[in-house]
Please model this.
Amino acid sequence: MISRRIIRIKVLQILYAFFTSPETSINNTEKELFFSLQKTYDLYHYLMALVIEIEKFAEDRIDLGRKKHRPTSADLAPNTRFINNRLIRQLKTNLPLNKYLESSKLTWNDEQELVRRLYLLLIEQDFYKEYMAAGENSYADDRKLVEDIFKYVILDNEEIESLLEEQSIYWNDDLDFVVSMILKTFKKFKEFSDDTQALLPMFKDDEDLQFTKDLYRKVVLNHSENVDMIKQHTLNWDIERIAFIDNLILELALCEFLYFPSIPTKVTMNEYIELSKYYSTEKSRNFINGILDKTLKDLKKENKILKAGRGLIGEEGNE
Model:
C-alpha cells in the first residue's frame, strides 16, 4: 500500500505544479495527484511482472538447450531450481496480479533485451549461485531468492531506472519505495497460498485516501494564511529568496499541525524534515527544521494546536 510518506511527496510535487503553472485548477491538479498515485500502484504490479519475465527467459533458455542438434549433458539435465521457484510460480498464477496487468496493459514484451541482460546479471550473483548449488531448498529459500533479486538486481539498476523514467515521469522517484512495497507483499505469501492470494491495496484504508485529498486542498485553500505565518517566523529572511520548494514543505507541515488532529506534531516534524533531505539543500534542511520548531512552539502558546486520539502521542503530558 502507498505509505503516507509517498503521499506527502506526491502532494508536494503536485502543489509545485499547481503554484508554478498558469491556468491550473484545484480540481484538475487533484485529479493529477491521484493519477500520479495510481501510476505508483501500476509500478508495483509492473515490477512483480518483471521477475516473472526473468524466470520465463530462463525457462526458454533451458528449452532451447534441450532442442540443440547436439545437446550437452548439462543441456539434457539442467538445474531447474530457479524455474521451479515456488514464489515465482505463485506470482505467475496470481489472479489479482494477472487481472491488474491485463486491465492496465502492463507488459515487458517490448523489453526482452533488458530481461535477457537482467538474467545474465542474475546468474553471476553469489546469492544465485549458492541458491542453485544448495542440496535442498525450502519455500523460505525460494522467497529469499526473489527478495534478493529485487534488492540486488532490480533496485539501484541504472538501466531499469532509465527505462522507467522514459516510460513515465511519475516513476522518477518511485523505485525504492515500490520495491519495499513488493517485499512487504512477499511476506504475506505462504507455501500453500493459492491463486487468490491478496496483494497490497493502493491505500491502507479510507482514512489515507481522505488524508491525500485533505492535505492537498488544505494547503491550496490556506495558502495566503500559510505564507503570512511563514513571514512572521522568518523576519530576518527575505521570503522571496527562500526556495519555493522549501516554502511548500513549510506549508505542508503547518497544515498538518493545524488541520489534522490525529497526526502527532512529532510525526509531522520528522516527516517533513526527512522530505527536505531529498528536495532541499543541507542549508535548507536546517532552515526548515528551525522554522518549524519555532512556529510550532508559538502555535502551542496560542493554543492553536488541537490534537486528539493518536494525535496526542508525544505531546507534553501525554507521553
